[in-house]
Amino acid sequence: MKFILNDELIDESMLPSDFTALRYLREKRGLTGTKEGCASGDCGACTLLVGAVEGGELTYSTLNSCITPMQALAGKHVVSIEYLSKVGELHPAQQAMVESHGSQCGFCTPGFVLSLAGLYENKQNADQPIDREAVCDAISGNLCRCTGYRPIIDAGLSMIKVQESKETPFIELMSKNSGIKVLLENLQADNRGSSNYLQPADLEQLAHALTSYPEAVLIAGGTDLMLENTQRYRDFDTFIDVSCVSELKHIHIGESTLSVGASVTYSELESFSKTLYPHIFALLSRIASRQIRNRGTIGGNVANASPIADLPPLLLAFDADIQLLKNDGSTRVVNIADFYQGYKQTQLADDEMIASFDLPLDKLAQFHRFYKVSKRMEDDISSVMLAVRFAEKDGVLTDVRLAFGGMAATPIRGMKAEAALQGKTLNDEQALHQAIAALRSELTPMSDMRASAEYRLDMACNLVHKAWLELNGTNVVTFSGHPFNDASLSTDMEASTHA
Fold first, then answer.
1. What angle do CA 484, 487, 492 make, to 5 degrees?
2. Sign of CA dihedral 25, 31, 37, 41
3. pTM of the predicted protein model
């Protein structure tokens, strides 16, 4: 595999398939500025900035090096903290951290700096302002245990001013080496993977890889799979990386469906949905962190069959179909309602993978909302997740979907509650109370470290009430007077009232 590490062209041929980028930097290259905090992609101390040519443009994104196989970065520009000031001056992100006193103990600082540097590089390249929302999004996957977020946010907001105050303009990473884009294009075309880490570019190459290495493990983003290596010390012999298979990377609006490839990342779907489907965008912005969303895929979120995954309830609400691809190239379709068989059990056969998802456009055009309740806004797992869709005609509900995550061994629907609302007028409050009563009779939530069964049940009922209020035009607010984001709630308010 060939890649650029900071300003050096590297050619590696002897790496194990599961050797992480974090280990490579620290153990093989002595670049110890990148830290290991959690080895699970949660803390961001190991953040790297990775450049790639996409759509003819060189862009940089952040990822967690502790759960990223080094070989997944073939053909990329890998930027560690040591490179930012290599030209003799501090990067604007570094200078802003110094001037804003953003570094506390310093352990998490390299990750924060690289997250801010990525924001600076891409925003500067796109000539967009850097506001508080953008800064908070950029550092959503970086944890500071010294409670130093305020000066770090200040640093992010002041990066542009710091740069403008300099007599000599800072040259962005994208411009430091005029030939880096061309070199990366050549590297990406030349890298086809190694004998233990295959990176097929299309379905034909994928089929050949599956035939040649029948015992290989499929990997896409690896944000969950790699925990088997870093947390449970499982060794993987051969990976087949499906993240670059072109037929699995599409987002296509057809005549009747929106088709989303299984290898589309959260960030890619987020970018697509921002204008067209703002409520989907709002939910995606609550999933994990920016580093995880840059690597994690839609197919992986569904195939992992986690009961607290956030996308399965959304797919249930829209009655989505899943296209399954067999190793021999044949396909079959399974509706999301039939996909999950039990805890961590799906209809996927040993020789199958998820290829894509089809969401009906008529259902996407109907009223829908997604509510995620978690202890933290960013980088946290749902205690309760609700996906809602209401279809109406002449003021009467003709179709109702109430899909929950975090409530049982699999994503589930509140079918009795749906039946209580269907066929009733939009503002029928008695029907709402009947639906909530039905929920209390049909839901038997689990209790765990995130929430008790009683809390989950109360929250589920409150969320349905909230959706009904919003359907009827009510602007639901917290007790502090601030409107809810469509994909978030104040758990304090929802726990204290059924309104």
1. 55
2. negative
3. 0.91
